[in-house]
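Researcher: Next entry in the queue.
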Amino acid sequence: MKIILLGATGFVGKNVAEVLEENNLDFVSTSKSTGVDLRDVSQAIKLFSDVKPDFIINCAAHVGSLNYVTEQASDIVSDNARMILGMYEAVAKVSPKAVIINPIANCAYPAHSNIFIEDEWWNGHLHRSVLSYGSTKRFLWTVGESFLMQNNIKSIYLLVPNMYGPYDST
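Model: Structure for this entry, 170 residues:
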C-alpha cells in the first residue's frame, strides 16, 4: 500500500504523520515547503507518477488564523482552489485508482450551527470570518464529487468538528 501525505509540514499534516508513523505505515510526505507546490499541476502529476499512490491524504491548505484568512481572503481562495483542482486533475491523469482522503474543518459548517451535524453542513451560509477558507472546503467536496461522476475518482471526506492540539500555531 502506497500512501502520500500532502501538506505534511502543516498543523494537521504533522499530526497525521505521527499517527501513520506510530502505526508503522510507510508514506511519502510532501508539502510546499519541501518542494511540491500543488498549485502547479505539473508538480502534482510528477509526484503521483513517481509514487503511484493507493491513498492520498490531503492535508494541504493555505490557511491561518481568523485574522489571516480575512486579511488574505483572495489569496486563500485562489491558492486552495488551484491546489484542489490541480490535485484532482493530476490524479485523474496518472493515478485514477488512488483514493483521496480529505479532512474538512468545521469552518465549512453553516454560521448558525450550534451543533455540527454532518447531514446539515450545507444548510446555510458560512460565517464571514471563515468565508475564504470554509468555502474552499465546500469546493473541495464539490470537486471531489464531480471527479467521481466523470472520472470515477474516489474520495473520502472527514468532517472534523474541531481541530486543535500539537503544532497549532494560532
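Model: The chain has one domain: 3-159.
Researcher: Noted, moving on.
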